[in-house]
Amino acid sequence: MKDRIRFHLDENMSQAIANGLRRRGIDVTTTPEENLIGKLDEEQLTFAVSQKRVIFTQDTDFLRLQQQDVSHYGIAYCQQKSKSIGEIVQGLVLIWQVLPVDEMMKHLEYL
Which InterPro entries does this entry report, sorted A to Z (predicted)? Predict the structure, then answer.
């Protein structure tokens, strides 16, 4: 089986998103679970890189980091209040199903 994307959910993401992904067998960590609450965006990204995880965020600062060509295993981004929890879970599941790990490296995917 090919390597699968693993996700890390940035601060302020609903636990329901993590639960929905886990029910579908997707490996996911969250900022509270990893004691990263209040850490800088760069620290969040460093954690995700150390774990080879795609970070899911609604924080526009990660768009800036993407433009600065910061190394990462992928950023999945969704504008705040633009999608329901169910739509976010569906979007992340789709990314997990169709995009290989190597295609997400240094890639920004919009939900």
Answer: DUF5615 (IPR041049)
